[in-house]
Amino acid sequence: MGTYKERPAGAIEVILLTPGLKEQAAGVIVEAFKTEETTTYHLDMEHAATVRRYVCLVDTFLELYLAAGRPLFAAVLDGRVVGVGMVRDPRRSITAKSVISTLLPRLPRLTALFSKHPIKALRIIRAASHPKGMTKPYFTFEVLGVHPDCQGKGIGRQIMEEVQSFAAEDPAISGIYLNTGSVKNQEFYERRGYLTLKVVDLDVAKVYHMFWQNPAFG
Description:
The structure is a single chain. This protein is an alpha+beta fold. The protein has one domain (about 10-215): 3-Layer(aba) Sandwich (Aminopeptidase), CATH 3.40.630.30. Helices cover about 40% and strands about 20% of the residues. The chain contains eight helices and seven strands. It has helices at about 20-35, 35-40, 50-70, 95-105, 105-115, 120-125, 155-170, 185-190, and strands at about 10-15, 70-75, 80-90, 140-145, 175-180, 195-200, 205-215. A seven-stranded mixed sheet has the order 1-2-3-4-5-7-6, with helices on both faces. It is globular, with a radius of gyration of 17 Å.
């Protein structure tokens, strides 16, 4: 883990994301999620304006996470970002000042993103609420995205293993929680040791709530 160092062509390295890679990372996340069931449920991703606003939303979260020092992982291939992992550490807070200064200039675009299907957006937010009963503190794996052109090459697995190793170094963390709107992703996470805690059915989409127990906890 650390800053990017030149490696043989075709070699994947998972590093901590730097501000200089933020724009690439936002593009990768959007490409990875724009066809997922929960995304298309409430966003019209076939429209270029919606995609641009979605990029703005992702970039906003990345900026806030970087400012708070929350763990952000990037899979780098030949100098470019091809996969991203965003982890929420509840002990690293995002300040109100940071939220205001980051959100205000982007508020019109972010409001427009959810204006067409606000009820569906609210249903997604409710469906994604964390289940009760998980031992705190735990990490939340907010995003694991791999660019479609690079999927199926083990990049998602590498990022996930890096995040699990990161969590295992901290015995105060009970584990890692995540949710996904894809049954394919659910199966992938189960193979990585995650248990499905709850499934929320939205008729045309489902949200799977999952948890990985940190073996070092306690």
